[in-house]
Structure formats: C-alpha cells, structure tokens
Amino acid sequence: MAQYPRVALCLGDGGNVELFLPIIPALRDSCYLSILVDPKSAGLKLLEKNKIEHTVTNGADVDWASFKLIVTGTNGKVFDLWIAATENGEDFDIPVLWCGDFEGSGCEEKVKRLIPTWITALNKYSKERLVQVRPDVRPTDIFVTGNPAFDELHKMAAFAPNFAERVRNRLGIGENPFVFYAASSSAQFELVEESLLPTLTWAKMRGVRFLADFHPADPKRDALRALVKDELGVLLVEDNDMHSKMELALASNVMVTDYSTVGYKAALVGATVAFIMGPSARKYQESRGMVPPYFSILDRERGVGGIPVALPIFDPEDIGLGLDTLMREPHYRELMSNARNKGEFSGMIDGKAGERVKNLIETLVRS
Predict the structure, then answer these.
(1) In angstroms, rounded to a whole number, what is the distance separating the alpha carbons of residues 9 and 354?
(2) What mean pLDDT, rounded, does the chain reach?
(3) What is the pTM of this model?
(4) CA 356 to chain centroid
(5) pLDDT at 172
(6) Phi and psi angles of residue 77, each rounded to the nearest 5 degrees, phi first
(7) What is the pLDDT of residue 312?
(8) Which CB contacts under 8 angstroms, 24+ apart, belong to 270-275?
C-alpha cells in the first residue's frame, strides 16, 4: 500500500464520524488513509466499536507534509484538529477538503478565517448558504454530495409504514394518538421552558400518549425523565431502549424536537415532524452562521403550497396550534409529504451519497 497517495482523514464531532464510517473501507482500497481523531471527539466510541484503526491527536504531532490531501469533517463543538489540519494544509501547500455533514456545516464563526480548497455540502440549500458566508471559496469548489450517513434511509423510506405499525404494536399504543419528543441537551438550550413544558401541557389537554427521549450527555436527564413521568401519569409511554429514535419517530403521529439530526432524517423518510425552536435554539443556529428558517426542510418557499417538509414553531405560544394542525389536518400532512418528494429533498436519501463523496476524494487525490 506504500505506493498509494497518503490522505489524512481528520475527525471531530460524532456527526462527521458517522459521515465517513460507511466509506472508510472503500477509501482504504484506493489510498493510504491515516485517520486522525480530535481528543474531544464524541465519535471515538463509534470508531472503537467498529474497530477502525485511528490516532488520537490535536494535530500538533502530525507529519502534515507527508500527505497529498487533507480531508476533514466539519464540527460544531470540536475545533482543534479541524483548525490544525486546515492551517497546516495552507502552510505546506496541501489541498484541504472540508466535508459537511449537516446544513450550516462550514459556516461556523470559529473557522471563518480559514480557507479550505474545497467543501462538500449536504444539499443545494447548504451550498447557497456557503456561497453567501464563504465568498473566499469559489462556488465551483463547493460540491453538493449529500451525507453518506443518510444512505441507509433510502431503504427505510420504502418500509416506513411497516416500521410504524410494528413499533406501535410493541409499545401497546394501538390507534391512540402518540407524540415522540426528542430533545437536545438542557445544558445547550432552554428546552424545559421553550419546548418541553408547553408540549406536555398540550399533550395532557389532548389526552395524547407521549414518549420523551433526552440526550445521553444531558446532566439533567434523570430529572427531566422524572418531570415527564410526574406530569403525564398514564399518558406516558416507556420504551426502555427497545427501539431506535428513528423507529419511534416513524411510529409517532408527530415527532417534536428542538434541534435533532434524527428529526431531520425522520422528516425526509416520512415522519410528521415539528421543530420547536425557541430563542435559545435560534441563538445557537445563528452562532453557526444560519439564518431563519435555519433548515431547508423548514423553508416554506421550498415546500409545496407554502407548506414545508417539517413544521417550524418559533414561539412557544404557538406550540398548541401547531401540534393541533399536524394531528388534525390530513391535508396539511399531505402537502408536507408532497414537499418531501421534491427532488431537492428526495435526492438527499437516494442512497448514493457515499459513492459521491468517495469518488470526489479519489478524484481530488489523483489531481
């Protein structure tokens, strides 16, 4: 393998570990791949679980000059290795490819001073935002590839109704209205005041069965679970980790979230999803260089008849009305489904993103 070009693959947040995981074996067949991982990476356990050989480093001890190409994921929380990789690429005149795993990737304030050679974008909306925020990167050097971690959704979309029926039967929900609430960390957002309590109040008034999932790293996770149990009583549904978040989203009548990749994926696959983005969630998105409505799936202009793929709720006072609309208006849900089927959105789950990203890396390393 020594004759193969050397490529540094630099990983940070869990999201970009998930992006590259499906294509690492194929990349190793065509180049000498050194996988470097930021010490603060949330994806370390995932690499270890999949027995992927890697080196943990902040970049200070790396022989950057030995690489022909530097590929790095984009990160919202872990920046040291990403910054070191990009700076050393410039210092040693080595081209650098940033691979974005989500909308807004590459727009982060902490890396605006850095200039990669190329960037991949999740979708057309992401590229449009990058062109606005990153005038230092030519539009022709921003490639819409999608995210290889989304490729598994291609088959799931076809079987979504079957998933839903099986999960509802196992949970004992039957035909009862059911909401799945999936939250980010309370350490990151004011989720209790801005989304959880208003949603619980609505669920009690409507007699809706309710299952809540909180981020594993949330320091208040146990307290939040206790709060939900006390508030709901018999309306509470307990899963005991039997099902994935995606399965629960597809089984629900409505999935409610504040900022969730799972919510985004679920909306693309066929779930009815509401994004409750109060002041703290909006402030976070704007710190990433995003502007309202923050995601393409929430953009009414990209939807059908003014109805987007997922429902944005920006004011906690509108939560009840928004959730009532999703639960009671089949025509609204039909328009959401029609929006989901537009090429801009269905293309993100065509099952070919891994092939596009792999082929791009192989082309760039040979150029």
Answers:
(1) 15
(2) 94
(3) 0.92
(4) 19
(5) 93
(6) -130, -25
(7) 97
(8) 270/157, 270/160, 270/161, 270/337, 270/340, 271/160, 272/326, 272/333, 272/336, 273/249, 273/297, 273/310, 273/311, 274/310, 274/311, 274/312, 274/313, 274/322, 274/323, 274/326, 275/310, 275/311, 275/312, 275/313
